[in-house]
What we know:
- By secondary structure, this protein is an alpha+beta fold.
- It has one domain (15-309): Clavaminate synthase-like (Double-stranded beta-helix, 4-Layer Sandwich).
- Helices cover 22% and strands 21% of the residues.
- It starts with 14 loop residues before the first helix and ends in a 12-residue tail after the last strand.
Amino acid sequence: MVHLRRRSPFDPRATDAYRRWRDAKIKDYPPSAEALRVEIHTPGQPTPAERAEIERLCRKTNMAVYAARSPSDSLPNPPSDPLSDKDRLKAFAGLFGLESLDANMLTDDDGVSSIMAVAESSGQRSRYIPYTNHPIAWHTDGYYNPPHRQVRSMILHCVVPAIEGGVNALLDPEILYIRLREESPDLVAALFRSDSMAIPANDDDNRPEQTGPVFSSDPENGRLHMRYTHRTRSIAWQGEAAAAVVRLRAILEAQDVPYLFHYRLEAGEGMICNNVLHTRTAFRDTPWQRRLLYRARFLERVAGTTMEND
């Protein structure tokens, strides 16, 4: 079992702490993806009130959707979207305490990934599903990272939407945790085991094997952290976690969990989140409109979203 803070609501023994946290968590939880949306009236320059609302939503649901341009502007890359400039996007992230980028071999030189479908013959990126137009199953980002480089937050910013498709399903890991714990504390206890999930080494990425928990209580902030991938290849589930993840997969595949949201980002919109569970449907491009999203992963949580802020 990984270390948990004393009286943490994520400690299976702390029943009273869990119930208090659960009741506060689900009280007034936003009912729809539209309720997560915050309009930024001066694109790229949120007011203190707009910043506070984004932080409030991230504190409540671990995610928020921001609109950095007028909804009436239908251009794929509107000139009123300053966040289509990646330096400005990083400065925007900095307003929320996000500064330590998680760069990897597929990010651009500036540490931000340009997510778009590439030709099958265009090199290394073409071997990874995010850089195709195929659907992506449930996952959190950076689940293969070592403990000292956990991806705690992420921004996805839409520069150009697809002609059709490219819809994200979004789920707060804390909501899934509640669902599993209400069914059986033994399920979540198995997923807290430090050896529950093993990612084999990847020689192409020069990445060693990574073994760790699915659920953990972040020692830096006390909040729940989740590492997960729905993939069935190049992953091994250990011991009791193998049975627990069968139930987890069934819930996600049935979409049998409350507050599961679906949202398609349009040009000038983005999602800022504490690395929530998400998927992507397949999408279609045309030669004159190719879907482009910028993805920035960070080692920090969104500012103001620790347990002390609850």
